[in-house]
Amino acid sequence: MPALPRPPLDWSAAVPFPGFSRESKIRLDGDGRFWHEGDRVDHPGLARGLHRWISRHPTDGRIVLENGWDWCYLAVDDVPYFVRGVSIEPGQAGEAGERLVVHLSDDSEEPLVLASLRVDAEGALRCEVKHAAKGGPFAARFDRHAAAALGEHLHEVDGRVVLRLGGQDHTLTQA
């Protein structure tokens, strides 16, 4: 039996039935862990699914969880995406040198847009990801493992943080 086509998502403020709310009690903390009603979401499969469902509401811009069938708002303490790892790869055809690929909390990976890489006031690395995604780009923060993996490529020059990649220096914006 062929699968039924999915109906388009209703992004209006209308609720499917009385007593229902699009506001949820799901929260994404500053370390990239999900919580529901004060309890940490410990099931790895559910946590992976929640990371993959992160999106942006098309009209109000708030972060939502959207699985293709339904959606709800969630609270985000810091950023919706986290950089969990990095790898340095040869540049694509027509690119000079190397490129930095980020491995994200939703199990995807993508080349980093170097112009979006910055250091915040606390010294954490931040960037924008998902430029081509619906609602993108999204803010992301490097977790400590990903930041440490970049350690040998980060240098301080004249009081500024510089990423040395493929023999070229990229000065990071300080936010």
Q: What's the topology here?
A:
Elements: E1 23-28, E2 34-36, E3 39-40, H1 44-52, E4 54-56, E5 63-66, E6 71-76, E7 81-90, E8 98-104, E9 109-111, E10 118-119, E11 125-129, E12 138-142, H2 144-149, E13 154-157, E14 160-165, E15 168-171, E16 173-174
Parallel strand pairs: 1-6, 7-12, 10-16
Antiparallel strand pairs: 1-2, 2-3, 4-5, 5-6, 7-8, 8-9, 10-11, 11-12, 13-14, 14-15
Describe the structure.
The protein has about 180 residues and is mostly beta strands. The protein folds into two domains: about 25-75, duf1285 like domain (duf1285 like fold); about 80-175, no CATH class. It is about 10% helix and about 40% strand. The protein is built from two helices and 16 strands. The chain has helices at about 45-50, 145-150; strands at about 25-30, 35, 40, 55, 65, 70-75, 80-90, 100-105, 110, 120, 125-130, 140, 155, 160-165, 170, 175. The strands form three sheets. A seven-stranded mixed sheet has the order 9-8-7-12-11-10-16. A six-stranded mixed sheet has the order 3-2-1-6-5-4. Strand 13 (about 155) and strand 14 (about 160-165) form a beta hairpin. It starts with about 20 loop residues before the first strand and ends with a strand. The model has no long low-confidence stretch (mean pLDDT about 90).
